[in-house]
Amino acid sequence: MASREEITVSEDEVRSQYSHLEKMTDLVAIWEVALSDGVHKIEFEHGTTSGKRVVYVDGKEEIRKEWMFKLVGKETFTVGAAKTKATINIDAVSGFAYEYTLEINGKSLKKYMENRSKTTNTWVLSLGGRDYRVVLEKDTMDVWCNGQKMETAGEFVEDGTETHFSVGDHSCCIKAVSSGKRKEGIIHTLIVDDREIPEAVE
Fold first, then answer.
1. What is the CATH number of domain 116-197?
2. How crowded is residue 167: how many other Cβ atoms within 10 Å of its Cβ?
3. Which end of the chain is more exposed for a tag (fewer CB within 10 A), N or C?
């Protein structure tokens, strides 16, 4: 027969598992947002009985409201180094069903990412066993690497421009060359240690 002590332990284990489960049942949405300084994870908890709203960005609590009488509405916060504006919209679909949509800078996440793919180039590469994510913002020619804005030096060359920077002890260069076609515009290529890096699709 089990001793009293053993039973207490198992009751506590059950209780801790249950409270963890109870805590997680309010998690209603998870989004991944690729910005210049990295890919950010946004998690949203919505208690449909208490009206509780909790927003986490990269695991860090940004907003917590315990009791809300209004179950629909919106929560606005910022994401990433550039403090990009994000809004979670909570809409009632029918009865007790809710729909959660994320907007970035006033655009739906899908529209924002489509627009972003036109205004930025992203490369993912591995150097010396470390992974790097390099992002070029075409409108400003700012270069980001693993969340840091890089010091760059630009120069004009015969067929376009080159933007030089370094990652660790590796020399990097983004070449901008006209495609010769109006629809394609300028083609940006990342060269690291004389090796061309293929562009990543996010």
1. 2.40.128.180
2. 20
3. N
- Please tell me the CATH code under which domain 11-105 is placed: 2.40.128.180
Count the Cβ atoms, other than its own, within 10 Å of residue 143: 23
Quick one: three-class SS letters along the chain?
Answer: CCCHHHHHHHHHHHHHHHHHHHHHCCEEEEEEEEECCEEEEEEEEECCCCCCEEEEECCEEEEEECCCCCCCEEEEEEECCCCEEEEEEEEEEECCEEEEEEEECCEEHHHHHHHHHHHEEEEEEEECCEEEEEEEECCCCEEEECCEECCCEEEEECCEEEEEEEECCEEEEEEEEECCCCCCCEEEEEEECCEEECECCC
Single out the residue of 112, 115, 111, 119 nearest to residue 188, CA to CA.
Answer: 119
The one-letter amino acid at 190: L
